[in-house]
Amino acid sequence: MQTSKFTKIAVIVLVLVFLVLSVISCSTHTHTHTHTTSGKKIPPGQAKKMNGDKSAKAYAPGQQKKR
């Protein structure tokens, strides 16, 4: 069973198109915004965790020094 030169070229082109489309379709989505919706403030403990601090005192509104 012999295949023509055109058939071989067509198969190669189809395989290359498939590979290119499969590589292009790979993408990742990262979320960069926080989940503070509807104007709510972040609790002091969560702000502490996000910044890596040991104490939440600096983030609590009742513990802020008066200026």
In whole angstroms, the N-to-C terminal distance is 90 Å
Quantity of strands, as a count: 0
Q: Helical element count?
A: 2
Give the helix/strand class.
Answer: mainly alpha
**Global Rg:** 29 Å
Would you tell me the overall average pLDDT? 79
SSE run? HH
Helix percent reads: 40-55%
Low-confidence stretches: none
Give a quick account of the main beta sheet: strands, pairing sense, barrel closure. Answer: none
Produce a short descriptive summary.
The chain is mainly alpha-helical. 42% of the residues lie in helices and 0% in strands.
Q: Can you walk through the features of this model?
A:
The mean pLDDT is 79. 0% of the residues are buried. It is built from two helices and no strands. It is mainly alpha-helical and 67 residues long. Residues 29-67 are annotated as: Disordered. This is Quinol oxidase subunit 4.
Key descriptive features of the protein:
2 helices, mainly alpha, 67 residues
List the helices and strands and how they pair.
Layout: H1 5-24, H2 44-51
Protein name: Quinol oxidase subunit 4
Region (Disordered): 29-67
Organism: Flavobacterium ginsenosidimutans
